[in-house]
Specification:
The protein has one domain: 3-Layer(aba) Sandwich (Indigoidine synthase fold), CATH 3.40.1790.10. Helix content is about 45%, strand content about 15%. It contains 13 helices and eleven strands. Strand 3 and strand 4 form a beta hairpin. The protein binds pseudouridine-5'-monophosphate and manganese (II) ion. The site of pseudouridine-5'-monophosphate has 18 residues, from helix 2, helix 8 and helix 12.
Length: about 300
């Protein structure tokens, strides 16, 4: 077998000089945002990481190779591609063995980041326990990954389309530290507040980095989940986003949307119902997370 990851020149250089690196996922590009805002956002997020003093490493599988760091041309072709696979822990190796192209979810991006020696990763919102999971058993593989792969994942909370209390319970069971930044409440992706208390709070990037080092020193497997609230000027309050979420969930149910298609379907419907407002908020929160992740990586 050849080396499992292909580093971009920018990432290879950053590694050789021991510069801080921040991993970025690609499912948000292919399944989370519409063209061409997805490409603009992917580039802006990379620039945000660079501006905050770190080096971005966007991760995807291209023709069977696991790329850590994409060139501008690779990013553009992925952003425009149709019917790209959405790869998580279960299907990553199969897609690579078949020479396929696919976008990596939070779980698969964590695996690749860890293989490449990258300890910090920025995304929008992780997957979690879906509403109705007591019947569907739909619980994102992102949660299990946080329990076993040592990467600090910076998000704006779990996506508010999920069952947030159940998501917190599962994270606690799995031993994943859930750390809110700058407030006591768990943020809820498009909104700053979920109405739930976050289990932990650390406000400074150095403190978050120190907690990761301490976890490793204890020999505990797994990562940390950092929940960074969307900036106030960009948030959509819960009472505004709530009815759109309910409408999108009802539609997914009546149309029988299931498995991997659920999250992309809900994000797209909420985008339409909100007249694009949900996308603007999503972009703002990802940029905000990229900045914080860069500071944690530098620390
Ligand atoms: N964050 C976003 N948009 C997204 C995602 C995260 O702002 O589209 C993606 C991530 O890749 C995450 C996935 O891992 O949604 C969760 O999918 P599922 O619920 O099927 O596990
Ligand atoms: Mn699922």
């Amino acid at each position: 077998m050849t080396a499992p990851v292909t580093l971009s020149p920018e990432v290879a250089e950053a590694r050789s000089r021991n510069r801080p690196l921040v991993a970025l996922e690609s499912t948000i590009i292919t399944h989370g945002m519409p063209w061409p805002r997805n490409l603009e956002t992917a580039k802006a997020v990379e620039d945000e990481v660079r501006g905050a003093g770190a080096v971005p490493a966007t991760i995807a599988v291209l023709e069977g190779r696991l790329h850590v760091g994409l060139t501008g041309a690779q990013l553009e072709s992925l952003a425009q591609a149709r019917e790209v696979a959405k790869l998580s822990r279960a299907d990553l190796a199969v897609a690579m063995a078949r020479g396929q192209t696919g976008a990596t979810t939070v779980a698969a991006t964590m695996i690749a980041a860890h293989q490449a020696g990258i300890a910090v990763f920025a995304t929008g919102g992780i997957g979690g326990v879906h509403r109705g999971a007591e019947l569907s058993f739909d619980i994102s593989a992102d949660l299990q990954e946080l329990a076993q792969t040592p990467v600090t994942v910076v998000c704006a909370g779990a996506k508010a389309i999920l069952d947030l209390p159940k998501t917190l319970e599962v994270l606690e069971t799995l031993g994943v530290p859930v750390i809110a930044v700058g407030q006591d409440e768990l943020p809820a992706f498009w909104s700053r507040d979920s109405g739930l208390q976050a289990p932990l709070r650390i406000d400074d990037p150095a403190g978050i980095a120190a907690a990761a080092r301490q976890r490793a020193a204890l020999g505990l497997p797994g990562g940390q989940l950092v929940a960074n609230p969307i900036p106030p000027e960009s948030e959509i309050p819960q009472n505004v986003i709530g009815p759109w979420i309910e409408a999108a969930l009802a539609e997914a149910e009546s149309r029988g949307i299931g498995q991997k298609a659920v999250t992309p379907f809900l994000l797209q419907r909420i985008f339409e119902l909100s007249d694009g407002a949900s996308l603007e908020a999503n972009i703002a929160l990802v940029l905000n997370n990229a900045r914080l992740a860069a500071r944690i990586a530098a620390a």
